[in-house]
Specification:
The protein has 14 helices and 13 strands. The chain has a 7-stranded parallel β-sheet, sandwiched between helices. It is an alpha/beta fold. The chain is globular, with a radius of gyration of 21 Å. The chain starts with 8 loop residues before the first strand and ends with a helix. About 40% of the residues are buried.
Length: about 375
């Protein structure tokens, strides 16, 4: 199924093209594959499209009705099946959450019989991507061309639990040319601030605990605000929590930002405090922008990118007392902030789109 220029036909299947780090990494992959000479098709299950992307978009969400009942789901499954048959893809990269065993068996049996499937795992919380029945999940996923993860730690975790031998580690990539363009856009802010970012669909990012830690620092009294980028159903509860902590005038919820890089560039430092991660794009983006980072360690992710004291500050998992102290210290220590910032960009050059593209090409040629 080679395209005219000798490249491959690649389908990237996502739940949506907006909001999260996994979705942003999928959009970046589309540009990467197009740059490698491959024909790219983005298939979105929902009609939620915000990120720019390369290639052809097939929006399954356009066929979703308000009820979203069993018949409508079967209809969209049938439409997707016909699309796969018509396009004759060489590879399908499947970014979906995969929690229902029967559904995954149907997809594997009737849709993915004549295509190389790469199942994407974007979090250390394996329950998102593997159905509960371990043995049956093992038999299902061992038939895939590969299971692509972002860190060695996730690879080890899957190997120990599911005994799979087709796992490949390929981290997220970042287009540094794009970063350098976007970070210099004007941000209309006339105050000092620290920054956090992430989805608010659930409590994984622990923004309530971050707000508490911030409220105990000297930052509010110094007029240094906390800006949080992102959106989701928990935003209103986080706003209420800021009121409860007495810092509602100092915590600013900016919502979803199409260009987060200008926020990274202008902040004093970036803060990350998730319960668990895969390979957090926000840390990669902050470091690529040349921004100092404070992060709580968690299962996979932060420790892959942050060398404590070298390009950032890495703290024990869920140690919000340590986070409070570090937030105060780094505000006061301008010399340390500058040292960390100077080292930040070079420390993540290995995640450039050019270098990660080589890893994908090796997987395609395997």
């Amino acid at each position: 199924h080679k395209v005219n220029n000798g490249g491959l036909k690649v389908c990237i299947l996502v739940e949506k093209l907006s909001g999260g780090g996994a979705e942003r990494s999928a959009a970046i992959l589309s540009y990467m594959f197009a740059g490698m000479g491959h024909e790219v098709h983005m298939v979105s299950i929902t009609d939620d499209i915000e990120y720019e992307h390369a290639g052809t978009l097939f929006n399954l969400g356009k066929f979703k009705n308000k009820m979203n009942g069993p018949l409508n789901k079967l209809k969209r499954l049938y439409i997707y099946q016909n699309y796969l048959k018509k396009q004759h893809f060489d590879y399908v990269l499947d970014f979906r959450f995969r929690q229902k065993l029967i559904k995954e068996k149907i997809l594997a049996r009737f849709l993915y019989t004549n295509v190389n499937v790469v199942y994407m795992v974007r979090s250390s919380n394996l329950a998102y991507y593997f159905p509960k029945k371990k043995k049956q999940s093992q038999r299902l996923f061992e038939k895939a061309h590969a299971v692509a993860v972002q860190t060695e730690a996730i690879k080890t975790k899957i190997e120990e639990k599911y005994k799979l031998k087709n796992i490949v580690v390929i981290p997220n990539a970042l287009d540094f040319d794009e970063v350098n363009q976007l970070k210099n856009q004007v941000l209309d802010v006339d105050f000092k601030y620290i920054l956090a970012a992430g989805g608010m669909q659930n409590d994984t990012k622990q923004f309530d605990k971050l707000i508490e830690a911030y409220s105990r620092t000297s930052l509010p009294q110094k007029g240094i605000k906390l800006i949080i980028l992102g959106r989701g159903q928990l935003m209103e509860s986080y706003k209420a929590h800021a009121v409860f902590c007495g810092v509602d005038e100092h915590v600013i919820f900016e919502g979803f930002a199409m260009n987060p890089f200008k926020y990274y560039t202008n902040c004093l430092y970036f803060v990350h405090c998730s319960k668990f991660e895969g390979f957090p794009m926000v840390i990669l983006e902050a470091l690529a922008t040349g921004t100092a980072v404070i992060a709580l360690d968690c299962p996979t992710g932060p420790a892959e990118m942050i060398a404590d004291g070298e390009n950032g500050i890495l703290l024990p998992q869920n140690d919000f007392d340590a986070l409070q102290h570090a937030m105060d210290t780094l505000v006061q220590d301008e010399a340390q902030r500058k040292t960390l910032a100077i080292r930040a960009t070079d420390s993540v050059k290995k995640y450039s789109i050019e270098k990660v593209a080589q890893q994908w090409q090796e997987l395609f040629e395997r």
